[in-house]
UniProtKB/TrEMBL annotation:
Protein name in the entry: DUF4382 domain-containing protein
Lineage, broadest ranks: Bacteria, Pseudomonadati, Bacteroidota, Cytophagia, Cytophagales
SUPFAM superfamilies listed in its UniProt record: Starch-binding domain-like
Signal peptide positions on this chain: 1-19
Molecular function in Gene Ontology: carbohydrate binding
Span of domain DUF4382: 30-173
Length: 265
């Protein structure tokens, strides 16, 4: 083999490897993690949020050689008034660049400080014994190179804080993770706006719930396309309300204002 031919061959191989490295370096996606819609039956709920961890694809595009990636929540204070995440409010927990491929799991990282305030009294929350397990969820986001993806965490505070012994309360998280792509959202307003009824969206396979904000507004997202019953559990003095809706993917369904009927004496 001549020296000239060998030099050309080595240059071609070098170019090939450089090309592969360039493709690999561009095989990245951006992931944003948001916490949404977490109202409860208390004046305030405060929880220390440390961040999240996600399990993306490894370098071979599968979970075989994948490692958890930690995304810290960076704020002036990590103790978050999580009860404010009502209606369409959301909290950006963090974002990071990852190897493109399937994101299969996510876990919320909480600190030790967690409490509620009711009638001006602070009550510390005890953590459920299986808290760490209940903060880890499956998710399926196929992250393509060069694109940005949102992953939402939805904590149902009304179902997550349960009474315990001696007047104390336990944090037993009811948490779900969802990719908003292809999902539906239902938005509405219930009058009077200050009565804070429970709102349930039910199908034969799933139930989502929320409370209204101070103006009566509610916002439920991450809904799988289907036919649902919207059930409004009214407070004392009003009648419950129920009706059916059908939702399709990638749609926002805005309901007409719903006036609760007073309960006759």
């Amino acid at each position: 083999m001549s020296k000239t031919f060998l030099a050309l061959w080595m240059a071609m191989l070098s170019g090939l490897f450089m090309s592969c490295d360039d493709v690999t370096s561009e095989n990245r996606s951006l992931v944003n993690i948001l916490l949404v819609d977490a109202p409860g039956d208390f004046d305030e709920v405060w929880i220390e949020v440390l961040g999240v961890e996600i399990l993306p694809a490894g370098s071979r595009g599968s979970t075989e050689n994948a490692n958890w990636i930690r995304i810290p929540y960076r704020a002036a204070s990590n103790t978050v008034k999580i009860s404010d995440l009502v209606n369409d409010e959301r909290l950006l927990l963090g974002r990071t660049e990852i190897q493109s491929g399937l994101v299969s799991k996510i876990r919320l990282l909480l600190g030790r400080e967690m409490y509620l305030i009711q009638d001006g009294i602070r009550i510390d929350l005890a953590a459920d014994l299986d808290l760490a397990d209940k903060l880890e969820m499956d998710i399926a986001v196929d992250a393509l190179p060069g694109f940005s993806y949102d992953i939402f965490l939805d904590m149902d505070l009304a179902g997550s804080i349960v009474p315990a012994a001696n007047g104390s309360f336990l944090l037993d998280p009811k948490l779900r993770a969802f990719d908003p792509a292809g999902a539906a959202t239902i938005r509405g307003r219930i009058l009077p706006g200050n009565v804070a009824p429970h709102v349930y969206v039910r199908s034969t396979t799933d139930t989502l719930s929320t409370l209204t904000a101070g103006n009566g507004g509610f916002y439920l997202q991450g809904i799988t396309p289907n036919t649902y019953q919207v059930f409004i559990e009214a407070p004392a003095g009003y009648l419950d309300t129920a009706f059916d809706v059908a939702v399709s993917g990638d749609t926002l369904l805005t309901l007409p204002s719903i006036n609760l009927r007073p309960q006759l004496p």
